[in-house]
Amino acid sequence: MQRRQLLRHFIAGAACACPACGTFFKSAAATASEAAHPHWAYEGHGGPAEWSKLAPEYAACGMGKEQSPIDLAKGIPAMMSDPAVSWQAGALEVVNNGHTIQVNCPKGSTLSLDGHSYELLQYHFHHPSEHTIAGISFEMEVHFVHRHAEGGLAVLGVMIKAGEPNPAMETIWRTMPALGGETAKSETALHPGAMLPKDSTTYRYAGSLTTPPCSEVVSWVVYRQPITASPEQIARFAKLFPNNARPMQHLNRRKLLLDVL
Ligand SMILES: [Zn+2]
Asked: Over the stretch 13-66, which tens digit does the pLDDT of each residue have?
């Protein structure tokens, strides 16, 4: 029952080119100029050390003091209410944007965080994990990207370690296109809540997009407990994306909180 839709037009892919990028919510027309969205990569030419020089609007990638990802160690215990997730199951739209596999979400899934309401736009995967917990890296990390009506983002991060197979990821992996710039759809409904851990203890800090333009507009919420995926599931993603994790950034003067409520 899968309906594959190939979007060969480069711009269509570029519209979603940055997994957590502020420009991605705009229509394809918003990125019609390639100059406004220059090529970047995780290694070699255009790699992380060069991001800030690729375009003036990427300056924060080099100059920013509140960048992500970071090592999540020694969080200051704090009493905070858990993020209240109200997500819906939806048909799958899975994009290979050349940087990651991204699942676009239909309207109607929300997150309430610290009294603010955000809408779930998309989620996507990194291999290996971008954040580390007390120096420990995980095989993968999934980011659930939410946007506030006034523009700020809240991203929920969940670590993925090798272990039991993950049924939700299996559904996505069955649909994901192998080539960059392609989109595939499936009627199979998937509830993203299946990829949240049982323990709701989270790290919180103010950070940035982990892809250009590295804008410092993200309230990060990263779960301490990982979920699992089978080594075979991890290998299938790694075959497409051997490394799509930004190197670690400095905490600088920020506070890292650990929600212990
Ligand atoms: Zn991400």
From this structure: 333 344 443 334 333 433 444 455 788 999 999 999 999 999 999 999 999 999
The question of whether 99 is a catalytic residue gets the answer yes
Task: Classify burial at 74, counting beta carbons within 10 Å of its beta carbon; exposed 0-12, middle 13-18, buried 19 or more.
Answer: exposed
Give the residue from 68, 72, 115, 107 showing the smallest Cα distance to 91: 107
> What pLDDT, in 10s, does the model give residues 213-257?
999 999 999 999 999 999 999 999 999 999 999 999 999 999 999
Mean pLDDT calculated for residue range 103-111: 96
Domains contained in the chain, CATH given:
2-259 (3.10.200.10)
Please state, as a whole number, how many other Cβ atoms lie within 10 Å of the Cβ of residue 143. 26
pLDDT at residue 193, rounded to an integer: 97
Cα(145) to centroid(ligand 1), Å: 8
Find the 113 Cα to ligand 1 centroid distance in Å: 19
User: Could you tell me the pTM of the whole model?
Assistant: 0.87
Measure 244 CA to ligand 1 centroid, in angstroms. 9
Do the bridges between strand 132-133 and strand 71-72 make them parallel or antiparallel, or are there none, so unpaired? parallel
